[in-house]
From TrEMBL:
GO terms for biological process: amino acid biosynthetic process; aromatic amino acid family biosynthetic process; chorismate biosynthetic process. Zn(2+) binds at residues 189, 252, 270. NAD(+) binds at residues 110-114, 134-135, 147, 156. This is 3-dehydroquinate synthase. Pathway: Metabolic intermediate biosynthesis; chorismate biosynthesis; chorismate from D-erythrose 4-phosphate and phosphoenolpyruvate: step 2/7. It comes from Pelagivirga sediminicola. Gene3D superfamilies: 3.40.50.1970, Dehydroquinate synthase-like - alpha domain. The gene is aroB.
Amino acid sequence: MTQAYRTIHVPLDGRAYDVLVGPGLLARSGALIAPLLRRKRVAVVTDETVGALHLDALREGLAAEGIDMTALALAPGEGTKCWSALERSTEWLLEQQIERGDIVIAFGGGVIGDLVGFAAAILRRGVRFVQIPTSLLAQVDSSVGGKTGINSPKGKNLIGAFHQPSLVLADTHMLRTLKTRDFLAGYGEVVKYGLLGDAGFFEWLEAHAPDMAAGSEEARVHAVARAVQMKADIVARDETEQGERALLNLGHTFGHALEAATGYGDRLLHGEGVAIGCALAFELSARLGLCAQETPSRVRAHLSDMKMKVDLSDIKGDLPDAAGLMALMAQDKKVQDGKLRFILARGIGSAFITSDVPQSAVMAVLEDALAQR
Ligand SMILES: O=C(O)C(=O)C[C@@H](O)[C@H](O)[C@H](O)COP(=O)(O)O
């Protein structure tokens, strides 16, 4: 029988794992997870939206191999990446008597993956976990690479740990139930991969992303698998972001500041902040003479074609002024010796990391973007 899914291996010494990408993996979850189990019992943490839609299917998939499942459903949304949800999850896992040898399943989007991965990292000083990402953003990005954590009122993802999953099941059927806004927010992370390191992939997206949005399974599998392969390659070379991994942060320096400014809520989803942040990073690159003047327009044209948020004027409500946004950017984890490091680009597919960016140039980009609101 031909395999209906693609396998991408993340070759980390002692912590290697596979990411499976394709339709129908939830139904096979029992058979795929069983080899990892010491006893036929798992604890699942999900959110209420995903739980209502897909928890029964996961239970059935696990039951097919005689695996019992106990589940906790948390409130959906970025607000759940917080201390109180972390406390609730860890206390619940202890109540369920999850042992060091057991497996915890993070069943949801990026919020659940990051939160539950962090809970697994600190529970009994570390238990293994499986990511079953249900959003496009989580499938292409956050479920792979082991960055786990929660937000602080002082900034995004400021409390966390590197803790690699033991397996990732990216079932592309699950993307069918995503709301358009969530799908497009996830697409912000997909396009990031083309922009940072693969001009050919960006061109493919310009031609095929509308098919992805319209529901083409083939296009979705291709895009998720390509993004995951790029991430796996980078993570294998630089697991803990000592260098090259920071490329995956393209768009995030601006994006995280905008998320903090808008309160990590419905005003701006993470992937929307990343898309706007990518447009700003290319604008900054062009103004510094690093890439052709027309490149930012090409990036923005594609985002607009996809009906995504592109500009600061697409964010409703008040925003801080440029100095206020700069102050939020100062909490970025890429800050070194008090100096911000940026991911800029010499062209589409050619991103690089630099701390050689005059503050006045960043201020000017932000002031001009704010002036257009
Ligand atoms: O995996 C990475 O490395 C990334 O930077 C991927 C990002 O898209 C992701 O949002 C990540 O969680 C951000 O990391 P952070 O270190 O900037 O909080």
